[in-house]
Design goal:
Layout (H helix, E strand, L loop, with lengths): L13 E5 L3 E7 L5 E13 L4 E2 L2 E2 L5 E2 L1 E3 L2 E3 L5 E2 L9 E3 L11 E13 L4 H7 L15 E6 L8 H10 L5 E2 L5 E9 L13 H11 L12 E4 L14 E2 L2 H10 L3 E3 L6 H10 L2 E5 L2 H6 L8 E5 L7 H11 L9 E5 L12 E4 L1 H10 L13 H10 L11
């Protein structure tokens, strides 16, 4: 189906890059920065067909993963403006593709690029850096996306989120290398590793959708603890958790926070809660990357880290969207690998120093500490024993 995504932002200034093939329009952002939208006539889109996981070189040094797929001109030459980014990976697409016998589709299409169709956190943080262009073009016949995992469908939570952002869009998934009459390619506004950056065009797009009157009422709590404790069904299905995770919920509730389980709510309801809270504590995870889309100045945000090393993308995203600093130092004292994933840190079990966590929350002004009662050692030992079959407790790191 066709959909209209708003009026043109500005009258285009065109300059030719390739004769009758590629033209580019620059839109000036606030603060004198520039975002670009390219128009590729008779462009070719190649989906991902080859993927290599990250690994280790012979000397033990890390080796980045690779994937192909991307955007090509009418002659089948690779266009770097369509390259995709994914943390720890390289977009190793072929420099040329064959142009004979391609399926050809008439009409105008917005190029969204590669979409992480399985992992929700990487979807929200890495797959939406071009979506801002939807507000600047109208009368497009579809939104082209390249699935990160070519043999798997979009997960329901991904489609729900996309539909909340572009409710009338016709999402197009190329089945093999395909050619389109006109492809509109917004610049990917992102940090170098691939995470979306909150430039003015990006902020404008998301705030129009997340800060509507219906989503900014004052009926929701002013203090939120965004928990992961209900995310798993059982220990065997969980790939990242804290020791005594439900006790964290209880402690934060005792300190005056409402415990919020984002996976139990629609995108709109998540935005509504995040909009209206003044103080937010997040258990490190995907929900933080949803929050930044609607983050506003003046909110106090703390991250409860589940890794010993704090990933800089969290603070970088928050600063780029709201200008606020991210509070919280890691209080993880031990981690335990899953027995079936002995090198995957993001899937590990994290043991916190609860007293140090309390002190850090007090220091950052997030709690008073008067209602805090850290778990006793016996409680922690019993919780660890519960995880013994899944996690390697004999070799903490």
């Amino acid at each position: 189906m066709k959909f209209a995504l708003g009026n043109l932002f500005a009258k285009p200034r065109r300059r030719s890059l390739e004769p009758a093939s590629l033209s580019i329009t620059s839109y000036i952002e606030a603060g004198a920065s520039t975002a670009e939208i390219s128009v590729v006539d008779n462009g070719i889109v190649a989906p991902v067909s080859r993927y290599v996981k990250p690994g280790l070189n012979a000397d033990g040094s890390p080796c980045k993963g690779e994937f192909d797929g991307g955007l090509y001109d009418r002659q089948g030459k690779r266009l770097n403006i369509g390259d995709n980014a994914y943390l720890g990976h390289v977009n190793a697409a072929a420099q040329t593709v064959a142009t004979e016998g391609l399926k050809r589709f008439p009409g105008r299409y917005l190029y969204l690029g590669m979409v992480q169709n399985v992992h929700f956190g990487h979807f929200t943080s890495e797959s939406l850096s071009r979506i801002w262009g939807a507000d600047l073009v109208k009368d497009v016949d579809g939104v082209i996306y390249i699935p990160r995992y070519p043999n798997q469908p979009l997960r329901p939570y991904v489609t729900t989120f996309l539909e909340a952002l572009l409710p009338n869009a016709n999402f197009v998934r190329p089945e093999g290398i395909s050619q389109y009459e006109r492809i509109i390619v917004p610049e990917a506004l992102r940090f170098a590793p691939g995470y979306m950056k909150g430039g003015s065009m990006v902020r404008s797009f998301f705030h129009k959708r997340t800060q509507t009157p219906a989503l900014t009422d004052k009926a929701t709590p002013k203090r939120l603890f965004v928990s992961r404790s209900q995310f798993r069904l059982n220990a065997a299905q969980n790939k990242a958790c804290f020791v005594c995770e439900t006790r964290i919920d209880e402690l934060m509730q005792a300190e005056g926070y409402t415990v919020f389980y984002p996976e139990q709510h629609s995108p709109e309801e998540q935005f509504r809660h995040y909009n209206n809270a003044d103080e937010l504590v997040f258990a490190e995870g995907s929900s933080f990357h949803v929050y930044v889309l609607t983050a506003r100045p003046g909110q106090r945000v703390y991250c409860l880290w589940r890794r010993k090393i704090m990933h800089p993308v969290f603070e970088n995203q928050l600063k780029s969207f709201s200008g606020e600093r991210l509070r919280g130092a890691t209080q993880v004292k031990k981690m335990y690998y899953r027995r079936d994933a002995p090198t995957v840190i993001p899937w590990a079990l994290s043991e916190l120093d609860f007293d140090c966590l309390r002190d850090d929350l007090i220091r950052e002004g997030m709690i008073s500490g008067t209602a805090w009662a850290s778990p006793e050692p016996k409680e922690i030992e019993a919780e660890l024993a519960h995880h013994r079959n899944v996690y390697d407790l004999e070799h903490p790191f």
